[in-house]
Amino acid sequence: MTTMRLALFPFLLLAAAPLARADSKKPSDEVDIEAVKPKLVFLHDGRGHYLAVVPFDSDSPVFYGDGKTFYQQRVFAYSHHQTDGRESLSFWAPTSVPRGGELSLASGVWTVRCSDRNTPMVTLDEIETGKLLERAAFKKVMWKRQAHGLARNDEGTYYYVDELRDDRPTAEQADDPHPPTGFRLFVGRKGKMREQKITDSTVDSKGIVLTTRIGQLSMDEDGKRVVLIKGKKRTELIRLEPLDNLRVIYSDLGIYGKLGVPCDAL
User: Fold this and answer.
1) Dihedral angle computed from the Cα positions of residues 72, 73, 74 and 77, in that order, rounded to the nearest 10 degrees
2) Which of these, 184, 89, 194, 203, lies nearest to 144 by C-alpha position?
3) Which element (helix H / strand E) includes 133?
4) In a 3-state reduction of DSSP, which class is residue 76?
5) Distance (Å, rounded) from C-alpha 160 to C-alpha 253?
6) What is the DSSP letter of 30?
7) Tens digits of per-residue pLDDT, 196-243?
8) What is the pTM assigned to this prediction?
9) What is the largest CA-CA distance in the chain?
10) d(CA 38, CA 226)
11) Which residue from 183, 149, 141, 185 is spatially nearest to 164, judged by alpha carbons?
């Protein structure tokens, strides 16, 4: 039998809910893996990069790390055919365009795909698995921000706004009249972006207005317009769709480093 699980996935908005922690003494950023610990299979590329997965189980978490610290992955699609020993899952990896990253098993071989790169993975033996489990820490998703808006002027100066990613369940988010935003504004050319101090902000159903020393940046989400206002001068900026510019945001702008996903290194 073939099973498939798909989730609507705007690359920059999806959030997978972390496992509930039974042990209240654990640090708040750690995941309780006791329920899946006996079933975890560790894969490695021979160069210090590891994945932890429960084969043929769409409900169990997937982790990536260096053998000491593992971060839970945001998985947005899963399918398997256990009779044939095949399965695949897609995980959030914004630099792996256009489909994100993929971990697959076929003919007994595990493979990680990032863009057009395919890396074969080897299963860790039982003894090494035991040693790894003794020393490893398993944490919630590392990356806790998401793109809000992107624009540039005619000279190639970019204006990029990101915000906190709300990983709470949908119902809990809907009941919160004041959800966290945590806006940040970066301005500059590719590779030379600088964060601007935000002194005031306006957020409503039409968009946001961020006040900084370089002026007020207004992002009208309804009219899909971005304007920089400084005194009486208004500069209309070219709005760019974040989903169409994932490589620009997560690589070219030079703002972010590692995201805690396999495609950081594979």
Assistant:
1) -130
2) 184
3) helix 126-135
4) strand
5) 9
6) B
7) 999 999 999 899 999 999 999 999 988 789 999 999 999 999 999 999
8) 0.83
9) 69
10) 52
11) 183
